[in-house]
Design goal:
The chain is mainly alpha-helical. The strands form three sheets. Strands 1-3-2 form a three-stranded antiparallel beta sheet. A three-stranded antiparallel beta sheet has the order 5-8-7. Helix content is 44%, strand content 10%.
Amino acid sequence: MGQRITIGFSQLIKPAWLDMTVQQKLEGHSPKLIRAKLDQFLSDQISVGSTAKGNTRQKTVSILSKMWLNVPKPIESFRNDGLILFKRMPKNTQIAVYWGMAMASYPFFATSAEIVGRLLRLQNEISTAQLQKRITEKMGERETIKRAVRQLIRTWVEWGILKPTDKKGQFVATDVLILTNTEMTTWILEGALIASKGDSAILHSLVNYTPALFPFKLSSSYFIPNERIETFNQGVNDVSVALSDYNVEPIKPSPKVSPTRKKTKKRQTKSPRSKSKPINTHD
């Protein structure tokens, strides 16, 4: 049996519900008020007429809250930058913001995405049963996990990441979303690092061989380190990246400016995870 992980992401989450949560947060409302607004907004869509504690609507509001309202302090600045990116990115690219935030907030989401990404490299279709089998191998045999997998796949269909085939319980991936924005590329790669529990990674491998990022096409050409990511030389030709310090100020919501040229400093210590000064590419 694998490591027991709290599922958390156990309900269908539609894009419109995420949109409302983010918009309310951007307007500066308190988490308490936003949760109340979400409960009212969803009252005619989920658990209609129910006021029972812990009903499906309340669980859905909890998921939305953990993604955007009550995030752990270490990823607050990451969340804040995600809010800024949501405002800047075209509508068809905003799904990448949701994906990055879900990966960083829910290990169950990130683990499931990694499994599906690996399967899709080997075959054209994936099934609910396949994901259920592999996720229970990692997280333990629980009926709640099987149900959560079904809801997660429904969510990905709603997000336009997967689409059903003619065979019941079988799905194929939709066309990948090509990301060519430097801030978006860096941010979603940071989300992948957070999901991996902060392990360092060779940049080329992180960009091209991270299964959990299967819905997206990325290029290291659009990666620019920020205050939370440090880069260092790995060997002769490879550049590695690692999480640095999350307790920094987020980027300011100002018009885009051309980033300064990245200067990668060669590491002097033997350990690739020892601290070095992050490269600042902001004016």
